[in-house]
Write a structure and sequence with these properties.
Radius of gyration: 19 Å
Structural class: alpha+beta
Shape: globular
Low-confidence stretches: none
Helix content: 25-40%
Length: about 160
Amino acid sequence: PRSSSAKLEKLIGDKLLTRLLMDYARVAVPDTLAYVLKSERTYPAAAGAHVTIRHWTDVGAVDWDSVRTDVVKFVDRLKGKTTRVVVKPGGYLWMGSKGVTFHPLEADSVLNAVKELSKQLHVGDSVLIDEYCSTLPPQDVVRARDLPLRAALDP
């Protein structure tokens, strides 16, 4: 969706907030580990949510050993559930697939991607590490009014 004001765009374009709201509404979302840089927004992460949030005050002061520990735990938790993860930036300036990378369930690969992406962050941006979820295969959609005809032609 497009918005007509910068203030609204900051709300609509926030992937992390959207993810949290969908999770809160019990819409299926991928497991996510997110790192947020100096956000003015308070993210309402609920206990048991599929989204884990860590806050960074300054990219230059990030405790990379702690990030590594988080990434190892996150990747280990996903084993048997998926074969890869998606690392992507969040924030209203990051549209589409800009900055998105895919990685096997290897902590070093994911950690390196997080480090590289962190160099490009602005205040309020985030790095999201998501469980990879494949898309549905193409579906043959038939309008309800065409079902009787379809059934007659293709028994």
